[in-house]
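--- STAGE predict ---
source: upstream dedup step, 1 unique chain passed
mode: sequence only
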Amino acid sequence: MAEIGASLVKELRELTGLGMMECKKALTETAGDIKKAEELLRIKSGAKASKAATRTAAEGVIGSFMSGDSRTASLVEINCETDFVAKNEDFLAFAEGLAKLVADRDPADQAELTTLKLGDESIEEYRQGLVQKIGENIAIRRFQRVNARSGARLALYVHGQKIGVLVEYEGDDEVGKDLAMHISFAKPQVMSRGDVPADLVAKEREILTARANESGKPAEIIAKMVDGGIAKFTGEISLLGQPFIKDDKQTVEKMLAARKAKVHGFWFYVVGEGIERKTTDFASEVLAQAAGAAR
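--- STAGE serialize ---
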């Protein structure tokens, strides 16, 4: 059996980023052939990635990129299992590298994105290697690339790496910054009142009508109460109808008009939004493990 020296183990660690014992074991299995050992670790990392993929990844970060001319930008949500890993330098570098790749290469979908190269590896190979190194499930959840139309520009705002916002607008730098920060705080669902889905309005009208009927007021008063409630509801969830965060006495629409600015579109991601998080009863889990061990 070939003797596995410390320098060889160190070299494999630098190639793979994996632990000393894993590298030494792989070198032992491949009789000191560093190329075969690297390949073996990649095979094993794929298996580990597949196993980890069954675990919920609801933490993570928003990776972002903006071109120098503020005309092309991207957001990427990368998930992991714990907030601790979300602060890992390799994980953060992966998120930022992906965001730049999305902006530069404009992949059509997730399947195409995973085939693109990040350094010498495909995105999927890189992801699997990161799973092996970090030991948590890592998932690329979604991405958005925006290219500004003629006469418009983009603003990018990332809050604590947990909320990412892109805005396509016309106006000065301050307008773009204000819009992006407002969206990160108010999280509008649509651009204007008219964009609110009809079924959502109908449902809200039904709720407001039932509530107003309990007041015992005349039908014409109830109708005005409901209409007022609908106006408030659609304003609260539409960007242009929302009170502007820096001056709640005016709407975003009025703020833009006063500053001779215009907004064409917005996109934002919130880490983990919509992911069902698994809750664990730790005491029950320990008891179950103890019972299993006793058997």
